[in-house]
Design a protein that fits this description.
The structure holds 2 protein chains of 2 kinds.
Chain A (H helix, E strand, L loop, with lengths): L3 H6 L1 H10 L8 E10 L2 E11 L3 E5 L6 H8 L7 E6 L2 E2 L4 H7 E4 L11 H11 L4 H14 L15 H13 L5 E5 L7 H20 L8 E6 L2 H7 L2 E6 L2 E7 H5 L3 E9 L2 H10 L3 E4 L5 E6 L5 H10 L2 E8 L3 H9 L2
Parallel strand pairs in A: 3-8, 3-9, 6-7, 7-8
Antiparallel strand pairs in A: 1-2, 1-4, 4-5, 9-10, 11-13, 11-14, 12-13
Helix pairs in contact in A: 5-6, 5-7, 6-7, 11-12
Chain B lengths: L5 H14 L2 H9 L2 H15 L10 H10 L1 H12 L1 H8 L2 H6 L5 H19 L1 H15 L3 H5 L3 H25 L4 H26 L9 H12 L10 H22 L8
Helix pairs in contact in B: 1-8, 2-5, 3-9, 4-11, 5-8, 5-11, 5-12, 6-12, 8-9, 8-11, 11-12, 11-13, 11-14, 13-14
The chains are: A alpha/beta, B mainly alpha.
Amino acid sequence: MNSDRSDHSDRSDRSDRSDRSDRSDGSPVVLDKVSVRYGALQALRDVSVAFPAGVVGLLGPNGAGKSTLIKALLGLLRPDSGVLRVLGHDVSADPLSVRAAVGYMPESDTHIPGMNAVSFVAYCGELCGLPHTDAMQRAHEVLFYVGLGEARYRNVETYSTGMKQRIKLAQALVHDPDLLLLDEPTNGMDPRGRDEMLALIRDVADRRKERTSGRPPISVILSSHVLPDVELACEYVVVLDKGAVATDGPIAALKGDSTRVFELRVKGDEARFIAALRETGIESHDESGEVLRVFVPVDRPVQLLFKVAAQQGVQVRHFRPSVPSLEDVFARALGD
Amino acid sequence: MPRGRAWQVIARAGIVARFRERRFLALMLVAWLLFLVRAVQLYVGTTIARASFLAPSEETFHSFLNQQRLFVFFITIYAGAGLIANDRQANALQLYLSKPITRRDYIAGKLATLAAFLFFVTWVPAMLLLALQVLFSGSLEFVSAHPRLVPAITMTALLQIGLASMTMLALSSLSRSRRFAAMLYALVAIFAGAVGRVLETTTGHAGWVLLSPQNTLAILTDALFGLPADSDVPVAIAVFAIAALLGLCAIVLERRVRAVDVVA
């Protein structure tokens, strides 16, 4: 999706970006004790985390601070304290350099009124500093890339929800950024559209890995509350809860091999059973109101479950081994 | 693109989009009709001795710019009401401000869009009329006899453009509806003037004229052209009132043009 021409015209910008991408610790995004407050509401509290290169999921329930964090990374919100560094830049000191190297896909439905898709994406490219001709050429390329090639002369206001999500991705990609910030990119999409969007996101990251021009591979931060999306697209995850980092790490490591997971359905006082399990060092959470997911450390015998059930007078009606999921990580991080 | 030039991109896009509308083009053409009438007046007044009563004076240019206020009003409403309101409705502000541009770039771009159209129907025709006068008379005598004319035309046009653009832009930023913004502007431009005049007449206090930005501006333009003032309000007070209004507009824009609306 990158033409020689646009590569050529952007060469000076690229070398500048390479300097900017001097990531001393290899993390494109680093937060150090960042706090953001809206009046009396503390949206982020002393958040210290490093987002590694690659596709990173930013997880959290509604109101956890995900969108606030993304807006702070763009310099749209000024933190009350702490330091944010994006691609080597201090966001507070140089927000424009950050925005020049970052592509942002907002959560809400957004467009420039009265424009067709090509004009809209090209306009966004020009706002990012591309010359008019290059911006127009890149707009065509990017629109084909996200699957809107046939609809590129239609007014954006007439697009379906899925198409609007795609064009938001296109405008974020038009200036060939080094970091993509995607806020709920699959919102409102049907399952097929969601799969295609996630495949696109993976492809964006993979294509840039293949580049040998000396530019760093593109990094993606995908903010979502849809766990399967994050599990499908990301290698690493940061979980926010109530404005603080609940946990972070590679998804595979967080799922871990230190516990075995079982699904249980019990009859009796479930709350007492859960409390008794916890006392023996076994975590569990009620996923659907019926099925308990129980995490048994490898150093504990599985029979302990039945022993505790017997002690609490609870009947085990269903017992099935399962595999750890991101949902388990999320639930445990949030203490559900 | 060098930093700080994004406003040009925004202004160019705004101007191009507007010129694609036939209704707007028609409005711009109609706004030049008065210029044609004045051009004929200049020709007749300059070349026909018996029609010397039509010969131009400073008053000619002053009244031309005054008459153009009607078109300034319509163009401001047509091209200005949706400048920020439409962006707010489409959630475009966060999109703009997530690019490497500042809020100042954004506001300057939107201001320049409207100002360019207003410039085209105030300063440009007024200066063209002056050029025609020189052409018809074949000498620079008129211009040299009225040294304050060019600065007066320029200042009057700039004040009209600045006041209309800033007021409209500030009102546009207050709403997500261009119609509501247009109504607010009409309220300020027409209703405030009428109320000011009524209060001035009933109370006998000249200060009520300041209620209307348009009437306040008229005090300044009278002074710029060296014409007797229509009001008893001192020019310094009128200058202060206009400056205060522009400052208020700047404050409104500063508060309303943000990528993130914080409701605390």
